[in-house]
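Our platform keeps sequence and structure together, in a single record for each protein. This encoding replaces a full spatial description with a residue-level series of whole-number codes. We quote a single record here, exactly as it is kept in our systems:
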Amino acid sequence: MRGLRRGALLAALLLPALPAGAAQTFEDLAYGAYQAGHYKRAQVEALKRVEADHGDAAAMTLLGEIYRQGLGVAPDQKAATEWYEQADARGDVNATFALATELLDPSSGKPDAVRAGQLLEKAAAAGHPLANYNLALALLATGKEADDRRAVACLEIAARAQIADAMQALGVLAKQGRGMPQSDEAAARWMGKAAAAGNVPAEVEYAIMLFNGTGVAKDEV
């Protein structure tokens, strides 16, 4: 099981899919530019959106990502956090999760583990896959049985969003009987899914399970 995740996955969750060949509306220009790697234009278009609609939380979150990563602009942690704060206040769950990760980062300038935990819970309750994955890791770290069960529920939400690390974690927990009944079959099923999704530790573990016939039909090839 890996540590805190955000990065490209957050960007993928942040951006809506644009239909192939569809004409871009004013609202789509910022996202389209971001997806194409034209980050300076994405920043300009996102700012236009906010100027036109002070409640445009999605554009604010996009600006937060641009400033956090320094895409087309100089990295600016303070500006990123301010944009995330505004978007979170307007109900954008991606901003809530991003803000939580910022507050957990010692390099952010003002780390706040307590508030970060509250924001992570908030984003997870809203169904954010990465928030659920990271909340699961925090719950597992407590060593409490009730938290283990909650962690499994969070990991299942993340796994449904095709987060391979969550699938691999479920495989480990099923093998251990932690937070769920011990089951080699469930462990093999989750490891197989994680392996198919590209999780390297799961690929190794699933190969061993196949070779030994643990929870799955034996296959020594």
The radius of gyration is 20 Å.
